[in-house]
Amino acid sequence: MSEPVPRRPATPTPAERARSIAARGGPAHLLPALAGHSTSERTTPALWHLHSGDDVSIALPADDPLAVGLRGEASAELAVTLEITDQSPVSLRQPVRGLLWLTGWLRGLDRDTARAKAVSIAESSAEPDPRLLDVGHDLALLRLTPATVVVSDSEGTHSLSPVTFGAASPDPLSDYEGRWLRHLEHRHGDVVLRLTRLLPPELRDGRVRPLGLDRCGLRLRVETAGDDHDVRLAFSRSVANTPQLAMELRKLVGCPFRAQDDPSAHERF
Hints:
By secondary structure, this protein is an alpha+beta fold. The protein has 8 helices and 10 strands. It folds into 2 domains: 154 residues, Electron Transport, Fmn-binding Protein, Chain A (Pnp Oxidase, Chain A), CATH 2.30.110.10; 92 residues, PNP-oxidase-like (Split barrel-like), CATH 3.20.180.
């Protein structure tokens, strides 16, 4: 009889993971999309914002060559790639968790349209970036319309259509993932230590760190002398809020009581 094939833990869809990386708003760079260009030509936006669909607003200094080259020409456009880095909220020796590439057409906006767009971005943000006030003055606002989307992380590399990417929602835990992971790292080292029993035996002597959190499970980074290893610990069900998350974490740890027996438990975990 053949050995059963181990089942991979469930994960959010590639589109969800891509949207979550974008929603976290990590460091981003613009680089030419055409072959033959050096990565030294990359430009760092002053700020960027992904809209509800797939368009991205990108603010550059008004005197940046890209902004100057696209100014005043209604039909002017440039093929570029916006590279977004997903960094761990916990300090790791290798902090990059994933990369998202949005490749498409960059176009300039006239001053009035740019100012209106900046106001719209500010109104949609819980904490508006004060640099939006500089749009139309020291900053130029441009629009990137993606034609291809590629996400790469520890789950693999996937190509997405802009329609699929635009229709996806971020993971329901993405808004407070960073706070929970830092809480585990700094306040609950004992919990992380207990989770090592779920790791493959060859990894249990490494330094175990909280790496990621999503509706499907918890990801750990195991730092060994020679390499880093990412391990996913799956929840028993998909979670959508903090009480459900606290219960699933307690199941992983082997906690003797359930979160619903103590209404404040999820606040203390």
